[in-house]
Amino acid sequence: MYLLSMATLLLTDLVAHGKQVPSSYIRPLGDRPNLLYPESSPKLNIPLIDYQEFDGPGRHRVVKEIGLACQNDGFFMVKNHCIPETVVDGMLRVSREFFHLPAPERLKCYSDDPKKTTRLSTSFNVRAEKVSNWRDFLRLHCHPLEDFIHEWPANPQDFREVVGEYSKHARELALRLLEAIAESLGLEKDNLVKALGKQAQHMAINYYPPCPQPELTYGLPGHKDPNAITILLQDGVSGLQVLRDDEWVAINPVPNSLVINIGDQLQVLSNDRYKSVLHRVVVNSQRERISVPTFYCPSPDALIKPAEALIDEEHPAAYKSFTYEEYYERFWNRGLLSASCLDLFKVNN
Ligand code: OGA
Ligand code: NI
Q1: 159-194 residue pLDDT tens
Q2: At what angle do helices 159-184 and 85-99 cross, to 10 degrees?
Q3: Which residues sit with Cβ closer than 5 angstroms to ligand 2, an ion?
Q4: Among the CATH numbers 2.60.120.330, 1.10.10.10, 3.40.50.300, 3.40.50.620, which is that of 2-345?
Q5: Mutate to test the pocket of ligand 1, among 230, 262, 264, 276 (most ligand atoms within 8 A of CB)
Q6: Of 92, 24, 70, 54, nearest to 253 (Cα)?
């Protein structure tokens, strides 16, 4: 009896073999994915930026491309990003192995307390939301690594080593991207990194099981990421969609590339020059999907506000200053509402 109720905490085990979506996952009419058209939309392509030249003579061009992408799309892909293929493949392999472990083994990490620095959970915020999402996730704090790695799952056997290696590379990439983004805004290259304080780095391993009725529910509903910048690794299965010109379009996986998106904190720091954009995840009936976002966020006590150099008479500060802790609490307690949490911190609010 006990084992059964523990096992059904997770989506993976509750519905793996069901023919219907339980009613708690069904979205109201008018808030369901239209699965017929996104793949055929003509506007699929977000910029694909070759990072190879960032440290060479092509730096200026790379910076310019990144700036344009942050301004126009809020999303872009990078290739030649310096995270070795073996590290990326290993990350996806141990993620898959973890979610394929027997339930009692996985449930050792289960918690719905967001204060826990390592935890397995389901949906988004099970304490706040009305409709559940078709997702289980393992959330890990990653920096400084030695403070957290001993909390991470010890099964699969090489989980800590492989995920630790990936998270170190992801951090390097995040720092290089923040440098490029600062430059593209005309700021000193360490401006953004400094503004984020000591900095935190979190990772989610998202597991979206096949869904018998994907037209009724979401893996994740439309949301904007609350952090500064997200580096998303996805396996070969589609599911991510981004809102462009009022239309949801698919960002299909491109081999050896990563998806980068601007989060709310960079929108604030850039004084609205760069945009945090709505995105969501749809599921499918055929294949499981794994994605690994690295969330690069400010330190909880960092005071976030528009960069001084980006404020003038024509562009007054669009946001009040706040700590990231304040921001995240508001974000978390709302569940995943698509209405932007940023509005709560606007100057004229
Ligand atoms: C997220 C997210 C996208 C994906 O976890 O915030 O947007 O493809 N994930 O899983
Ligand atoms: Ni997201």
Answers
A1: 999 999 999 999 999 999 999 999 999 999 999 999
A2: 130
A3: 225
A4: 2.60.120.330
A5: 230
A6: 92
